[in-house]
From TrEMBL:
Highest taxon, organism lineage: Bacteria
Species this protein is from: Nitrosomonas communis
GO molecular function: ATP binding; ATP hydrolysis activity
CDD domains in alphabetical order: ABC_DR_subfamily_A
Name of the protein in question: ABC-2 type transport system ATP-binding protein
Keyword terms, alphabetized: ATP-binding, Cell membrane, Membrane, Nucleotide-binding, Transport
Record domain ABC transporter: where: 9-238
Gene3D superfamilies: P-loop containing nucleotide triphosphate hydrolases
Family: Belongs to the ABC transporter superfamily.
């Protein structure tokens, strides 16, 4: 733990083209240890593409990513060990029980076989899945499936947790519970979450970055906005309502 640098993700000049379309253009992003960063932006802003590049699931067209000081493009296996990732569509095998699936996820993440039982107990406790280990995933509500998705992302106790729209499709009670969980995760790891929900950022995050049309257009600490009495809603409108991309 002490060997982990203070900056857990540093991405510079990250770009990704799909054919002639530029989805992400020269994005810089830094995540500090113990920080929860909210990535905000309208539909199609480039949030998921950025997160896929930060997790090594999509190659950037250009740019670099370091995870806990390890170059993600040069040493992907080593760098990915530090990362837990909940994609927009959680990779659940719904015909498995929660226990079977989490056991499988633990093996994929190279959790020591002798520790798997205790790790499963701990992660189920953290994610509120204690009593449903024997349930088939496809019989669970969307909220519980999302918890299973988060559980697989944190099962190897990663330094960096990346959650793509963790609250999507959840009811208000489930959203509240997931937020409490994310805040909890932020105490032991650094977290990036993407969302459209402004109160989610205000309630959970330490810092916010806003993307629009593939570029990073705004970055600030939530405490700073609060201190200056600035409304995140107004800032979001100001930086995302224009049609033309706003430069850094
Ligand atoms: N595999 C792909 N092939 C072609 N275009 C893509 C691909 N993936 C994303 N895009 C395009 O890149 C742009 C950014 O998409 P991305 O999914 O990253 O945005 P987003 O901010 O996550 O949006 P949302 O909030 O709707 O999920 C969009 O114009 C999208 O259509």
């Amino acid at each position: 733990m002490n060997d982990i640098p203070n900056v857990t993700i540093s991405a510079y000049n990250l770009s990704r083209n799909f054919g002639k379309r530029t989805a992400v253009h020269k994005v810089d992003l830094e995540l500090r240890r113990g920080e929860v960063l909210g990535l905000l932006g309208p539909n199609g802003a480039g949030k998921s593409t950025t997160m896929q590049m930060l997790t090594g699931n999509l190659a950037p067209t250009s740019g670099s990513v370091q995870i806990c000081g390890v170059d993600l493009l040069k040493n992907p296996q080593q760098a990915k060990r530090y990362i837990g990732y909940l994609p927009e569509n959680p990779p659940l095998y719904k015909e498995l029980t929660v226990d079977e699936y989490l056991r499988f996820a633990a093996k994929l993440h190279h959790v020591n076989l002798s520790r798997i039982d205790s790790v499963l107990t701990e992660v189920k406790q953290r994610c509120g899945l204690n009593d449903i280990g024997k349930r088939l995933i496809n019989t669970l509500s969307k909220g519980y499936q999302q918890r299973v998705g988060i559980a697989q992302a944190i099962i190897h106790q990663p330094e960096v947790i990346i959650l793509d729209e963790p609250s999507i499709g959840l009811d208000p009670n489930q959203i509240r519970e997931i937020r409490i969980l994310i805040r909890e995760l932020g105490k032991s790891s650094s977290v990036i979450l993407s969302t459209h929900i402004l109160p989610e950022v205000e309630g959970v995050c330490d810092r916010v970055q806003i993307m629009n049309q593939g570029t990073m257009v705004f970055s600030a600490a939530l405490a700073e906005l609060k201190q200056k009495n600035l409304s995140l809603e107004r800032i979001f409108e100001q930086f995302t309502l224009r049609n033309e991309p706003i430069g850094n």
